[in-house]
C-alpha cells in the first residue's frame, strides 16, 4: 500500500527458501516394525516373523490354525469382557430409627430420680436385658457412700444432717463487759497524750459510724471506772485501748478490727449479730455522744459546801462528770 508517488525499493537480500533435500516423501510401507527387526545388541535373540494377531482374530480362532468361531460365541466373549452394568444394586443398609432427644433438666432431686428411672425403663424395653454379671449401682444420689458418711459424722457430732450456717462470732472468746450482752461496747480515750492510741481510737470509732452501728462508747479518760472494767476483763496487759466487744464476744483491738474490716468479716459479724443501727448517742442533744455532762450539783468541781466545810461531791466521778440524763 502506498501513494502514487511512492517508489519501489528492491531488496538485495533474498528470502529464505528450504533446500530440496528437506522435502521427503513419507512411505508407510517403508516403516519396519521393531518386533520384526532383529536386535542389534543381541543378534541371537529370536523375533517374530509376523505381526501379532488382533483381538478379533484371537476370538475367531485364527491362532494355531483353529477353526473360526461363530458370531454368537464372539459376542458372548465380548459380553464377558464388558463390565456388568445391569447388575442389581447392593441391598441398602438398615435404617436406624430416629433417636428422640429427651430433656434432662431438673429442679429438684426427686425430679432427677424420676427421669433416671424412666430412662432406664425405656432402655430395657427397647434393647432388653443385657446378659452379664449384675453390678450393684446406687440408684439415688442420696445413697452415695460419701454423702452417707458425712451425714453419719454430722449426726455423731450432734449436728443436723442438713446445711448448718456457720456463726462468725464463734471464733472469738466469750468475754462480756458489764451490760454488754446485747450491745456493741467500745473502750476508747479522748485524750491525745499518746498520738498512736488516740488515732487508733478515732479509726475504730470511724468504722462503727461508717456501718451506722449504735455502740456504747466507754471513754476511759472521762471515767476511771471504765479502765477498771477493762482490767478485770482482759488483765493489766489488755487494758490498752481501743477494745471492741460485740454481744459478749471480744473482737480485738485496733489492728484486729481493721483487719476484719479489710477482709469483709467485720460486716458479716455485725450482720449476724443483728446489732442496732442508727445514730444512737451521737444524736443526743444533751451530750452529743460524749455520754457525760458536767455535774449539776458541784458544777464539775467535785466539791460541795456542807456547813463550813467543803466535801467531795458524791454525784460525779473524779472528773466532775455525770452520765447524761437524756441518753442513758
Please give the count of helices. Answer: 8
CATH structural fold name of the domain at 168-278: Glutaredoxin
Number of strands: 8
Read across the widest sheet, the strand sequence of neighbours is: 2-1-3-4
Main pleated sheet: 4 strands, mixed
- Which percent bin holds the helix content? 25-40%
Give, in order, the helices and strands.
HHHHEHEHEEHHEEEE
Overall mean pLDDT score?
75
CATH class of the domain at 168-278, anyone?
Alpha Beta
Proportion in β-strands: 5-15%
Write out the CATH superfamily name of the domain at 168-278. Glutaredoxin
Q: What is the rounded distance between the termini? A: 133 Å
Net shape: elongated
CATH architecture descriptor text of the domain at 168-278: 3-Layer(aba) Sandwich
Radius of gyration: 58 Å
- SSE-based structural type: alpha+beta
Please mark out the parts with pLDDT under 50 across 5 or more consecutive residues, or reply none.
125-129, 131-136
Amino acid at each position: 500500500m502506498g501513494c502514487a508517488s511512492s517508489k519501489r525499493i528492491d531488496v538485495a537480500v533474498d528470502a529464505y527458501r528450504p533446500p530440496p533435500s528437506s522435502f521427503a516423501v513419507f512411505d508407510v510401507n517403508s516403516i519396519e516394525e521393531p518386533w520384526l527387526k532383529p536386535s542389534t545388541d543381541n543378534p541371537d535373540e529370536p523375533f517374530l516373523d509376523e505381526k501379532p494377531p488382533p483381538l478379533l482374530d484371537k476370538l475367531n480362532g485364527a491362532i494355531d490354525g483353529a477353526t473360526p468361531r461363530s458370531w454368537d460365541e464372539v459376542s458372548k466373549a465380548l459380553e464377558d469382557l464388558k463390565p456388568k452394568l445391569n447388575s442389581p444394586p447392593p441391598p441398602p443398609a438398615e435404617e436406624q430409627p430416629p433417636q428422640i432427644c429427651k430433656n434432662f433438666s431438673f429442679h429438684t432431686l426427686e425430679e432427677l430420680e424420676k427421669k433416671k428411672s424412666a430412662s432406664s425403663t425405656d432402655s430395657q424395653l427397647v434393647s432388653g436385658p443385657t446378659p452379664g454379671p449384675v453390678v450393684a449401682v446406687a440408684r439415688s444420689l442420696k445413697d452415695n457412700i460419701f454423702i452417707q458418711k458425712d451425714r453419719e459424722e454430722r449426726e455423731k457430732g450432734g449436728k443436723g444432717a442438713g446445711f448448718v450456717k456457720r456463726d462468725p462470732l464463734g471464733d472469738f472468746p466469750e468475754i462480756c463487759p458489764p451490760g454488754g450482752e446485747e450491745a456493741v461496747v467500745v473502750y476508747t480515750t479522748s485524750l491525745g497524750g499518746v498520738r498512736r492510741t488516740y488515732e487508733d481510737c478515732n479509726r475504730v470509732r470511724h468504722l462503727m459510724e461508717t456501718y451506722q452501728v449504735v455502740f456504747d462508747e466507754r471513754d476511759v479518760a472521762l471515767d476511771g471506772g471504765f479502765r477498771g472494767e477493762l482490767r478485770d476483763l482482759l488483765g493489766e496487759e489488755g487494758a490498752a485501748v481501743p477494745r471492741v466487744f460485740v454481744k459478749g464476744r471480744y473482737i480485738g483491738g485496733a489492728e484486729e478490727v481493721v483487719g476484719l474490716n479489710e477482709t469483709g468479716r467485720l460486716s458479716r459479724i455485725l450482720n449476724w449479730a443483728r446489732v442496732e443501727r442508727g445514730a444512737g448517742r451521737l444524736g443526743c442533744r444533751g451530750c452529743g455522744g460524749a455520754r457525760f455532762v458536767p455535774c449539776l450539783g458541784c458544777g464539775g468541781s467535785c466539791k460541795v459546801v456542807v456547813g463550813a466545810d467543803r466535801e467531795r461531791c458524791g454525784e460525779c466521778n473524779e472528773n466532775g462528770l455525770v452520765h447524761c440524763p437524756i441518753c442513758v
